[in-house]
Specification:
The chain is α/β, with parallel strands linked by helices. It has two domains: about 200 residues, 3-Layer(aba) Sandwich (Rossmann fold), CATH 3.40.50.1820; about 60 residues, no CATH class. The protein is about 45% helix and about 15% strand. It contains eleven helices and eight strands. Strands 1-2-4-3-5-6-7-8 form an eight-stranded mixed β-sheet, sandwiched between helices. Strand 1 and strand 2 form a beta hairpin. Helix 4 packs antiparallel against helix 5, helix 4 packs antiparallel against helix 8 and helix 5 packs across helix 7. It is globular, with a radius of gyration of 18 Å. The two termini are about 30 Å apart.
């Protein structure tokens, strides 16, 4: 009888930071990168199943999950999440799976890799990367991003983390769903807002263009929800026009948080993606 893969959480060291990380399975590497305010458990619907065929790695990004909390909008470490991801890249084929800010981190890691910085991924599976820096030439979308991010950062600087969470989540899921969110969940998300403010600032300083991503020749699946914010859908549709080996899949009725609200559909699309890559 086949034994279930051992499920394991471990601590790794990256520079001066200790990072909680889930690892299981053997084979080609599959690296999962969660969204802002989340942790590796966002991917629980896929981790165990995928570990039958892959070496699965899912870190808690700095300041999230079981890692030490992030206490201000400044980075308390000498490393950042991009360096964390780079430290996880193995000396063998690997695939990157990311959602929201995690998808931006995966996209930027791949861009650097295909520029020759280190080994490039075999594929990308990205769910609505909010790479807002790519829309600097769009007055409408860039102005909206600056408005939302500016209000969130200001609230964090005023130590009003509940307000920051209301602004942040109100944009991504809507103000009524946020109003109806359980109090315990609101408190948990509010406690992560200092790191979210740091991520907003990071997105505002990146200066790459769509043209800088035409070298990403690996198979890429971009996923969006039909009920996601217009900015997120615009970014996905624009990336589809610029990446050379890309497919776009929509989840009907899903918003930006599809790994949480539509896990079965996300898992089906991930399996489809990996099958597409395996077929060459």
């Amino acid at each position: 009888m086949d034994l279930e893969p051992v499920l394991m959480e471990t601590t790794i060291r990256v520079g001066d930071a200790q990072v909680n990380c889930y690892r299981a399975g053997t084979g080609p590497a599959l690296i999962f990168v969660h969204c802002s305010s989340g942790n590796h458990k966002e991917w629980r619907f896929a981790l165990q199943n995928c570990s039958h065929d892959f070496e699965v790695t899912a870190p808690d990004l700095l300041g999230y999950g079981a890692n030490p909390s992030w206490t201000s909008s400044a980075n308390p470490y000498s490393v950042d999440d991009l360096e964390l991801l780079r430290s996880l890249i193995p000396d063998k084929p690997y695939h990157l799976v990311g959602h929201s800010c995690g998808a931006v981190l995966a996209l930027e890691t791949a861009r650097q890799a295909f520029a020759g910085a280190f080994r490039a991924p075999e594929s990308l599976f990205l769910i609505e990367p909010p790479a807002t820096y790519l829309l600097r030439d769009s007055v409408k979308h860039w102005t909206l991003f600056q408005k939302v991010s500016g209000k969130c950062i200001s609230a964090v600087e005023d130590n009003d983390f509940a307000k920051a969470a209301r602004i942040f989540m109100g944009f991504w899921i809507g103000h009524l769903p946020w109003l109806l969110t359980p109090r315990w969940q609101k408190r948990r998300i509010a406690s992560t807002m200092a790191k979210v403010a740091y991520e907003f600032a990071m997105l505002g300083t990146l200066a790459h263009r769509f043209a800088d991503h035409t070298t990403l020749t690996c198979p890429t699946t971009l996923v969006s929800g039909t009920r996601s914010p217009e900015l997120a859908q615009t970014l996905v549709n624009s990336l589809v026009q610029h990446l050379p080996n890309v497919r776009h899949r929509e989840i009907k009725g899903a918003g930006h948080m599809s790994p949480y609200t539509h896990p079965n559909e996300v898992k089906r699309l991930l399996d489809e993606h990996l099958g597409w890559v395996a077929a060459g």
